[in-house]
Structure formats: C-alpha cells, structure tokens
Amino acid sequence: MPRPKKEKPNRSDGRFEVKIVVGHRYDGKAEKKSFYSTLSKEDAHKKANAWLNSTSFDDKVVFSDFAQEWLKKYKEGKVRDNTYQNTYVPAVNTLNDYFGMRRMSAITPMDVETFFGSMRDKSKSKLSKLKITLNAIFKAARKNKIVYDDSPASDVVIHSTQDPKATRAYTQEQRDLVFKAAFEARKLAPILLLVFALRRSELLALDWDRDFDFDEKVLHVQKSLAMTKGIPAIEKPKTKNSIRDLPFDDLMTNLLMSFRAHGLVFPDSNGSLANPDSWAKNSYYKIMRDICEPLGIPILRPHEMRHTCATLMYGRTNNIFLVSRYLGHANVDVTAKIYVHDTVEMMRKELRL
Predict the structure, then answer these.
(1) Is 183 part of a structural domain of the chain?
(2) β-strands 224-228, 231-235: how paired?
(3) Which end of the chain is less packed: N or C, by CB atoms within 10 Å?
(4) Are 235 and 284 contained in the same domain?
(5) What's the half-sphere exposure (Cβ side, CA atoms, 13 Å) at 23?
(6) Which residues pair with 314 in a beta bridge?
(7) pLDDT along the chain (353 residues), means of 10
(8) Is residue 5, in this structure, part of any structural domain at all?
(9) 306 and 213 within one domain
C-alpha cells in the first residue's frame, strides 16, 4: 500500500494555518482567529482546540452594558468624585451614544477611526480622555473574557480641528499694575493667585489659622478642595508634591495680616466652603473686572494667573526645578512641557542675538 502523501503547509512561509470563528461582527460576519504550526495542520488544530478549551468569550455583550458596568466597578468610589463626574461619566456617555448596542467583539479599529473622525471638532484634551477611557474599557473587557484581542483604539491617532485655547500670561509690567491696583483697592483674591501660583482647589481650601505662619512668613499648602456629589469638601492634595511651603515677604505679610480673620480665607456667603465655579463667577471675576478694566488689561482666568506667576518666576531664575517645586507639579517634566518653550527667547536676550 502506498504511503499517503505528506500534507504541504498552506502558507508561503512554510507554516500550517487553521482559522476558527471566535465571534461575529455587528453586520453578522464571522470574526476569526488564526493558529499556526510548523509541524502539521493537525498540530495547528490542537492549538486552536486548546485555546478554545481554556477560553470562554462572551461575544454577545454590547458596549453600553459593559461600559456602564466598568464605570461602576472600576471608577466609582476609586477616583475623586469630581474626576468621576466630570471626566469618566461624560466620556462613557459620549462613547455610548456612538457604540451603544454594538457588540464589544464586533468593534474594530476602523470603527474607532470613524468615531474619532466624527469628533474632530472637539478639543484634543476631550479626544484624549475619550481614547484613554475606551482603551481602559477594552482592557477590562479582555480581562473579563468579553473580547479576546487588544483595544481597537490602541493604535488610533487622534486629530482635533479645534484651535487650542492659548494660555495667556501677564507681562511683568501688567502684573505689577494689577498687583498695585489690587493692593490699593484691598482686593485679596487676585493678589494671592498672582503671588502664590495656587490652584483654585488649593486657594479655596486655605484656612487662616492652619495654613499661614506669619512668624516664619510661610504659607503651608497642605489641603485641597474637591467636589463630592456636588458638595465641596476638604481633602489631601492629589499628589505628595502638591504639599509644599511657600515663602512670602514683609510686604505680603503686612497685607495678609490686614485681611486676617479666622477660619476659611475664601468662604461662600454663608461662611462655608465655596463651590469653585460659583466662587469664580461671583467673586473672582467681579474683582478682576474692577481692577483690570480701568487699566485696559485683559482679565485672566484663575489658572492663567497661576501661569503668570510661574512664567515670570522662570523668566527671573531660568530654574525649571524651582518652578516645578513651587507649583507643586508631580514631576519636572510637566513643568518643562509648559515653560521650557520660553528658553529660546531667553537665550536670544542673554546672548544679545
């Protein structure tokens, strides 16, 4: 009896390939996975069967169901309430609006490309948050055997057609004019923002009795205000670098002591912790209008006041490490990304080019 012919590899690279159905796309087409062997097709089949026996994927789970479950199990109560409500919930809602009842296993990189293409008019920041959230959802889905492959968003490059909102900063002359006007009008908020470069959450957590050491002329930044279920609350800063001591001089000592009271520096009208948005609208911007409009100087957002302080400090010292420490950034790379672009002009000035 003649020996049966040896089976030839079905791939040009000399390997045997076996494909099995592992799911179905939203249009009903089969989703397949390949298994390979250099020995035989039977060996490739064994690998496929072993994979099937060790893996049980549920390709019927729809995106909206799993995304909501992910939100509750992986994020609620595990991140700050403000981050949960203002970052993750809106991101999941936006993703659900598009992918909704699509099966998780049916969403492809091309689908994700189409989604982000439809969102190009949004800010790059928003698109980045959507991509991070989508990747996190699919990572959890893979761990929970809802999908078998990597996130379809992992290699997607996002593009935004929206012009980024430029961060403005006062010149030293403008800063001095605002400071002088604020001093004469006895308006405290912009002075603290300008001089100490505090985050709004840090500013609204300040307590006269706890945070100011007038003997040593030091401001202890050690608390932060966060919104928890719509209610302001005091908590520890997000990172250990945010806890820092900032010096102030004799002039600022005298000014601060003239305002000094007990308890919160910036309470709401009831003497309680202020809502950051309400404080900005009802206090900060009113004060800034009174000071800046007569001077013909633009009104900067609270974060731009912090940016002003850091920019001018970097201009005086050219010391990115000092600026980073002063701002309470998590690491110097964050500071460098924002402020090192000024170095070329500083070099030009110093080298007289």
Answers:
(1) yes
(2) antiparallel
(3) N
(4) yes
(5) 23
(6) none
(7) 67 84 61 84 83 66 92 89 87 93 88 92 90 94 82 89 81 92 88 90 94 94 87 87 91 88 92 91 93 94 91 86 89 78 55 59
(8) no
(9) yes
Domain limit, last residue, from 102, 126, 143: 143
Are residues 309 and 185 both part of a single domain? Answer: yes
pLDDT for position 348: 60
Instruction: Tell whether 93 and 227 lie within a shared domain.
Output: no
- Which strands, in side-by-side order, build the sheet including 218-221? 212-213, 218-221, 244-247
The CATH number of residue 338's host domain is: 1.10.443.10
**What phi and psi values does residue 33 have, to the nearest 5 degrees?**
-130, 140
Output the pLDDT for position 301: 92
User: Distances in Å between the alpha carbon of 287 and those of 126, 181, 187, 188, 291?
Assistant: 31, 11, 7, 9, 6
User: Count of alpha carbons within 13 Å of 337, Cβ hemisphere only?
Assistant: 6
| CB within 8 Å of 67: residues ≥ 6 apart | 92, 95, 96, 99, 137
Query: Residue 95's domain spans which residues?
Result: 63-143
